[in-house]
Amino acid sequence: MEGDRDAPAAGTSDNLEAAWKQFGRDNPAGKALFKLYNKDAAKQIGNSYHTRNKQVHDKKLASGWTPAPVTEPAKPKVEKPQVEVPKFPKRIDYDTARINYIPRRRPFEAIRREIDAEYERMRSAPQAPPNRPVLDEKEKARLAELMRFRGKVPTVTPEQLADQLKAAPRKSEREQLEEMFEAIVKEIEERREFLQALEAAGRLRIDTVHMIRGEISARVAELQKVDALLKQYGEA
């Protein structure tokens, strides 16, 4: 009877030890059962692998196999660094203080004496004769004109042009008004031709039309004023 009682107890213990395998370890119950009944399963698996590998290794040794010797790598040779040490000259013994041997600026009096002596030498030295004729007034005037117009002297200078305008007969006011009338008419015709050319090329835009028509209107107003003045001269 006692043996029968112990048998179910042993079977129950084995089932509990394998219960975590049924639950898995992806849930809290399986993790708790694994911690309680696994009895270092990972350690046991590692020991079994170690035992098997040791048996294989012992068989190889018994057959006369020897492992290759392990050689340590050679240590790198450390070279001693070469440092260049500057060489200094031997110490010089000075009779006086070293500061007296340092070149310094000359005093003002010494520099002034040298300048005066050089000036006297240059003034007393004979002057070389000129190697070209001396410039006369005509040549000076020509060079002045070249400098004035930057090397290109025009055929008609501004002074000559002013003299020609003064000498030319002055036009009467009627003639000036007639010339102004013709100039305004020409400007109006040019703007009309410009609009026609744009229209023929297919590039005419409404803003351009408004702008050109505004200019034409301004010219027409000026033309009317000039025409009124011409009529006054005609009546007179």
TrEMBL record:
Residues 48-82 are annotated as: Disordered. InterPro entries: UPF0193. Pfam families: UPF0193 (PF05250). This is Uncharacterized protein. It comes from Volvox reticuliferus. The lineage of its organism: Eukaryota, Viridiplantae, Chlorophyta, core chlorophytes, Chlorophyceae.
